[in-house]
Amino acid sequence: MEFFKCTKCSEEYVFRRAVCHKCGSEEFTGVDITQGTAIDSVHLIATPEPMPDDYSVVMFQTPNGARGFCRTVSEIKRGDRIRITVDEYGPVCEPE
Ligand SMILES: [Zn+2]
Question: 15 CA to middle of ligand 1, Å?
Protein backbone atom coordinates (compact mmCIF):
# COMPACT_ATOMS: atom_id res chain seq x y z
CA MET A 1 0.00 0.00 0.00
CA GLU A 2 1.54 3.30 -1.01
CA PHE A 3 1.83 6.10 1.52
CA PHE A 4 3.47 9.46 0.87
CA LYS A 5 6.53 10.46 2.86
CA CYS A 6 7.79 14.02 3.28
CA THR A 7 11.35 14.10 1.93
CA LYS A 8 12.36 16.76 4.47
CA CYS A 9 10.99 15.48 7.82
CA SER A 10 9.83 11.91 6.94
CA GLU A 11 6.22 12.49 8.09
CA GLU A 12 3.99 9.91 6.34
CA TYR A 13 0.54 10.45 4.88
CA VAL A 14 -2.02 8.03 3.48
CA PHE A 15 -2.96 10.62 0.81
CA ARG A 16 -0.68 12.89 -1.16
CA ARG A 17 -0.77 16.41 0.27
CA ALA A 18 0.15 19.76 -1.23
CA VAL A 19 2.12 20.77 1.88
CA CYS A 20 3.49 18.79 4.82
CA HIS A 21 1.60 19.98 7.93
CA LYS A 22 4.66 19.30 10.09
CA CYS A 23 7.44 21.16 8.23
CA GLY A 24 5.84 22.98 5.28
CA SER A 25 7.73 21.07 2.60
CA GLU A 26 6.02 20.39 -0.73
CA GLU A 27 8.22 17.41 -1.65
CA PHE A 28 6.96 13.87 -1.12
CA THR A 29 8.04 10.43 -2.18
CA GLY A 30 6.02 7.21 -2.37
CA VAL A 31 6.72 4.59 0.29
CA ASP A 32 5.38 1.02 0.23
CA ILE A 33 3.70 0.12 3.53
CA THR A 34 3.48 -3.65 4.12
CA GLN A 35 3.17 -3.88 7.92
CA GLY A 36 1.35 -2.12 10.72
CA THR A 37 -0.50 -2.46 14.01
CA ALA A 38 -4.29 -2.66 14.24
CA ILE A 39 -5.84 0.22 16.17
CA ASP A 40 -9.50 -0.76 15.80
CA SER A 41 -11.85 -2.63 13.49
CA VAL A 42 -15.49 -2.57 12.43
CA HIS A 43 -17.33 -5.69 11.27
CA LEU A 44 -19.49 -5.11 8.19
CA ILE A 45 -22.39 -7.21 6.88
CA ALA A 46 -24.74 -6.76 3.91
CA THR A 47 -22.27 -4.63 1.97
CA PRO A 48 -22.75 -3.47 -1.65
CA GLU A 49 -21.43 -5.46 -4.62
CA PRO A 50 -18.71 -6.45 -5.39
CA MET A 51 -17.57 -6.66 -1.76
CA PRO A 52 -18.21 -9.82 0.29
CA ASP A 53 -21.10 -9.71 2.79
CA ASP A 54 -18.95 -10.43 5.79
CA TYR A 55 -15.65 -8.66 6.40
CA SER A 56 -14.05 -6.07 8.66
CA VAL A 57 -12.47 -2.69 8.04
CA VAL A 58 -9.35 -2.22 10.15
CA MET A 59 -7.72 1.08 11.10
CA PHE A 60 -3.98 0.56 11.42
CA GLN A 61 -0.89 2.53 12.29
CA THR A 62 2.43 2.27 10.46
CA PRO A 63 5.73 1.98 12.36
CA ASN A 64 6.20 5.75 11.73
CA GLY A 65 2.79 6.66 13.16
CA ALA A 66 0.76 7.27 9.99
CA ARG A 67 -2.71 5.76 9.91
CA GLY A 68 -4.71 4.04 7.19
CA PHE A 69 -7.47 1.53 6.57
CA CYS A 70 -7.53 -1.98 5.17
CA ARG A 71 -10.11 -4.74 4.96
CA THR A 72 -9.93 -8.34 6.13
CA VAL A 73 -11.96 -11.54 6.42
CA SER A 74 -9.68 -12.67 9.28
CA GLU A 75 -10.11 -11.89 12.95
CA ILE A 76 -7.87 -8.95 13.80
CA LYS A 77 -7.95 -7.38 17.24
CA ARG A 78 -6.62 -4.08 18.56
CA GLY A 79 -2.85 -4.31 18.96
CA ASP A 80 -2.39 -7.17 16.47
CA ARG A 81 0.50 -6.88 14.04
CA ILE A 82 -0.76 -7.07 10.45
CA ARG A 83 0.63 -7.62 6.98
CA ILE A 84 -0.80 -5.33 4.27
CA THR A 85 -1.21 -6.06 0.57
CA VAL A 86 -3.35 -4.44 -2.14
CA ASP A 87 -5.87 -6.07 -4.47
CA GLU A 88 -8.15 -4.61 -7.15
CA TYR A 89 -10.46 -3.08 -4.48
CA GLY A 90 -7.81 -1.63 -2.21
CA PRO A 91 -5.71 -2.49 0.85
CA VAL A 92 -6.14 -5.97 2.38
CA CYS A 93 -4.67 -7.07 5.72
CA GLU A 94 -4.02 -10.34 7.48
CA PRO A 95 -2.63 -11.12 10.92
CA GLU A 96 1.15 -11.36 10.84
ZN1 LIG B 1 7.61 17.40 6.40
Answer: 14
Peptide bond into 50 cis (omega under 30): yes
Tell me the backbone φ, ψ of residue 8, rounded to 5 degrees. Answer: -90, -45
Distance 52 CA to ligand 1 centre (A): 38
User: How many degrees, rounded to 5, is the angle at CA 24 between CA 21 and CA 29?
Assistant: 85
Q: Across the 96 residues of the chain, what is the mean pLDDT of every consecutive 10-residue run?
A: 95 93 97 96 89 91 93 95 95 96
This prediction's pTM: 0.85
Q: Do both 79 and 51 map to the same domain?
A: yes
Same domain as 49, residue 7: no
Number of domains the chain contains: 2
Q: 4: CA distance to ligand 1 center in Å?
A: 11
- Regarding whether 15 and 47 lie in a shared domain, the answer is no
Range of the structural domain that residue 17 is part of: 1-32
How far away, in angstroms, is 64 Cα from ligand 1 center?
13
pLDDT (tens digit per residue) in 29-46: 999 999 999 999 999 998
